Amino acid sequence: MFRAIIHMIRHDGDPACMAFDGKVLPDVDTYLEFTDRPDAPIGTRTVDKVKQQPRPRFYATHLGYEAVPKSILEKAKIIYVAGNPKDVIVSTYFFFSSLKPFAFSGTLEDIAMSYINDKAPYTPFHKHVASFWKHRDRDNILFLTYEDTLMVRT
Predict the structure, then answer these.
(1) 27 vs 74 pLDDT, higher one
(2) How far is Cα 28 from Cα 59, in angstroms, rounded to an integer?
(3) Quick check: is 62 catalytic?
(4) CB 53 within 8 Å of CB 68
(5) I need a labelling partner for 104 at 20 to 30 A (CA). Which of 19, 21, 92, 125 fits?
(6) Mind listing the GO molecular function terms for this protein (predicted)?
(7) Can you give the residue ranges of every domain in the chain?
């Protein structure tokens, strides 16, 4: 669904852009917070990937409001998607479990406790969500909940 939202934004809301003949919509796979190895070749670094994208550029982040660069907060259009904490915990568990090189062998309870104790990435969870919630009325920020997007029917 989020690919479709971004695809429509890229095409100024033209519904004809959704006729993609079964091809997968372009994905946003450049995350601002993912750091590169110090020896990463020029042209392959995150910053290079962003610069190489055609305008308008699209990228994703899990960063809280205060950690997003000021230039992005002032100039970019931002879609913030908040999730139900229980769903976020379950999704995190399955995501970590799928990362074979990291050999995560913890339990769902381990993940839940890491959120409760603010040891999970991007925690404290409620502070993270609140950081964008208090800016939800800005013209360049669309604040959504994942659950609300599931209720939208076309």
Answers:
(1) 74
(2) 6
(3) yes
(4) no
(5) 125
(6) sulfotransferase activity
(7) 1-61
Cα–Cα distance for residue pair 77/58, rounded to 1 Å: 10
Pick from 141, 147, 153, 11: nearest CA to 75 = 141
Encoding tokens for residue 95? 């995501």
In this structure, are residues 87 and 115 in contact, taking their beta carbons and an 8 Å threshold?
no
pLDDT average, residue stretch 88-96: 91
The residues near 60 (Cβ < 8 Å, ≥ 6 apart) are 28, 29, 30, 31, 32
Per the structure block, which two tokens stand in for 131? 């950081």
Interatomic CA distance for residues 56 and 76, integer angstroms = 10
Of 7, 62, 128, 135, the active-site residue reads 62
Rounded Cα gap, residues 5 and 2, in angstroms: 5
3-class DSSP string for 69-124: CHHHHHHCCEEEEECCHHHHHHHHHHHHHHCHHHCCCCCHHHHHHHHHCCCCCCCC
92-98 long-range CB contacts below 8 Å, 24 or more apart?
A: 92/120, 92/121
Residues 60, 6: Cα–Cα separation, whole Å: 11
Distances (CA, A) of 29 to 35, 47, 133, 139, 151: 13, 13, 24, 25, 25
